[in-house]
Amino acid sequence: MRCSGLITAAAIAFLYSWGSACADADTSGRNLFQGFRPFQAGPEATNRNLPTSFAACANCHGVSGAGKLEGGVQIPPVDIRSLTGTRGILPGFATGEMILAAIENGVGRGGRPLGSIMPRYNLTDEEARALLLYLSEVGTREDQPHGVSSSNVRLGTLLPVTGPLADEGKAILAGMQETVETLNSNGGIYGRRIVLVTQDVAKDPLGALETLLKGNIYAVVGGMWPANETELEERLAAAHVSAIASLVVRDSPPTKTSWITDMMAPRDSQEQRLQSALLACKTVGPRWLLITRREDKTGPLAEGIEAVDRTALDTPERSEPGCIGYDIARLQMVEEASLDGWQREVVLPFPSALLRGDDSNIWRRLGQAAIKVTAEALSASGAGLHERSLLEALPDLKGFEPIDGAPIQFSPSHKVAWDPDILSLGPTSASQR
User: Fold this and answer.
1) Each residue of 97-128: pLDDT tens digit?
2) 119, 138, 248, 317: least buried by Cβ within 10 Å?
């Protein structure tokens, strides 16, 4: 961000009255305002002893300083144009000291006291300078997070492009690159070109992320890393970098407050979907669910369903042919087993529509879908972006189809694009194997 582009003479006056050290103070001011850095006084930073996570200015005034309705009260905007301009018959704040008097002591326009809903802040000198500098840019086009400029948006992706999953990773990357090229050839998004930066996660996922973060990226898009890499995902949150439309298949969905969103359904919802399909299966024989979770537990599930592992497939003596449910990772295993006459229910972590179309490479199509979802979220966010813009835009895209017949289902509490789907296959026979 820059120490320029201020709106009025009064704004220039209060800025210069507080000195320079622009780069450091401006950056920390943004972090203070947005809640990425706590005030030094901790809970004592406000007269209400608010938790540090609640004291951020953006919680009430909004991430762009435009104000919002909070608990039935209209919170005013705090961008520089609003602060220095008149409001009704009341004059604007003419100096930095006057703005600080409002923040620290509740002294409003014309010396009138601010309402009690506005906390009084206990700021250090460095925090005061930093906030004043940031208020000169909040909500403007200069107020942009890392990886965003007037000409481009830098997106990163983490994919296995070497090792045993190289074919899948390269196909995902090819789909992403093709879609990015198409978007850029059409003018980008709000005049910004998308720059896609790739790092290989095959050997060192966390190291790959650190390298990616050093490349000044706005978000991680469509990545595929081990689902148990919790340290990697914690690092993303600490850096305030969102992971949009990841292709990780984890055991449970991301939490509501997570910086992670996934395209594909987690294993727990896949298992629930399989159970429903097996209960609906018309058979007089057994109903087997080939376990899909990391915690490989066998035994009874719902009434009439048995959780089994791969050893059950090799059991020579069985009763009537029945139904077996499994995920696509176990497709070949079941195909090679002697299950003549059995009905097969295959759970997919994505809509079955992905299996249709001219492109038979599912991984390429998943890469395309991840970029399309991200591009749609960028468009919905507007030209002014903040760190959580894409995360906040995703629920508004509900029903958008990055692939025909595969609408996304994000909501404020649902961080996964697609629900699991079932592919029902007819009874097997020896001639089919």
Assistant:
1) 999 999 999 999 999 999 888 999 999 999 99
2) 317
